[in-house]
Design a protein that fits this description.
The structure is a homodimer of 188-residue chains.
Chain A lengths: L1 H10 L6 H8 L6 H4 L3 H25 L6 H17 L3 H9 L5 H27 L9 H18 L7 H14 L10
Chain B binds a DNA duplex (30 and 30 nucleotides) through loops.
Chain lengths: 188, 188
DNA sequence: CTTCTATTCTAAGCACGAGTAGAAACCGGC
DNA sequence: GCCGGTTTCTACTCGTGCTTAGAATAGAAG
């Protein structure tokens, strides 16, 4: 599964050859069928594991901050998500990069896990809103997804050479907290 | 090419069968070879067109605001990018969704176009910074990519039912301008 | 040393998708 | 109505990737 995750994260669902996976795992392709019924069931397992990974990791971070203020919790979740996506398991990376390109049947089951994960974020946003800290110009659902999107896209461009991971995390937090701009807000 | 863009946006590079494209275009697969030398060259053409589309569109928006203040320009660019990605050509959608999964040779050429597009955004961020409006906590490069990422990920979740396009645009602008939070900033 | 189970292998089958060859159809100009 | 070029078609080849069959290997237990 680790091998599959790696290949899947790199080449995507349709681009991942069973033989590539086998090579990474240092076995012959048919050996895979001892553990999985089919290519698809292997991939499904990997992708599921990936989102569950992210869910568990972020939940854990939040559990440690169960009585912190909503903003702190939200920013901690951002840090958690970014760490998993950029440094953590290639399982999560595989989920992120393939969520859009899975066949219908897998996608349906995978969607449940994603909804579960999404709930965590909705909850966070709700907490912030309940504390009266959410700006009213924002559509909460859109804001949530834009934030998750900013993080999910990060694997596409991030590398240690572009910017230190800590910088990315700090920037993401700052962006969410206070936006790009300084004093005057030049909205329209 | 339009058919190819549509299929490509939906199924990704490796998942796009020439026969699918032909079907959408209402021809038989070999007819494609009258216009393109190979599957890859077709896809390359589509993906190129896609990023050029986005570039041109955003450049045009900015040209109309050539003497506006930097913030207005940046926010207009955000609106432009989102409109192209969510409503506009499936060409751009195809580029966005496949940038990560193209074979090396295409990717190299495609990368140039992307760099060109990225320059526009760097320029915008620089303008903002030059006006002294950029918060210093931010790593500009990371901030730029996070913002682009938020928008590029939008096609993964957005649909007219989730939120009106105008809401998404407004939310994205507001997020970039002033972040999620209201009065107190609960950073750490 | 033998036997049983777990695991992996080699060899082959089968389907499918890219690409080619060459024939047909279409169409504007004569 | 015929001719030229353009465009698309049908029929085929060839490689590749998933999957199955059945044999081989590796240990553990007796």
């Amino acid at each position: 599964m680790e091998a599959a995750a790696e290949v899947l994260a790199r080449k995507g669902f349709a681009g991942s050859r069973l033989s590539d996976i086998a090579e990474v795992a240092e076995v012959q392709a048919p050996a895979i069928y001892y553990y999985f019924q089919s290519r698809e069931s292997l991939i499904e397992a990997v992708v599921m594991e990936g989102t569950r990974n992210a869910t568990i990791h972020v939940e854990q971070v939040l559990a440690e901050l169960s009585d912190a203020d909503p903003v702190t919790r939200l920013l901690a979740a951002i840090e958690g998500h970014l760490r998993v996506a950029l440094q953590g398991s290639s399982f999560t990376l595989a989920s992120i990069r393939n969520s859009g390109q899975l066949p219908e049947d897998i996608r349906a089951r995978q969607h449940n896990e994603e909804v579960k994960y999404g709930r965590i974020w909705r909850e966070l946003v709700n907490e912030v809103a309940a504390a009266g800290l959410l700006r009213e110009e924002l559509n909460p659902a859109a804001a949530q997804m834009l934030i998750i999107g900013a993080m999910n896209w990060a694997p596409e461009w991030w590398g240690p050479k572009v910017a230190p991971l800590e910088d990315v995390i700090a920037t993401a937090k700052a962006l969410v907290a206070g936006g790009l701009l300084n004093a005057e807000k030049g909205q329209r």
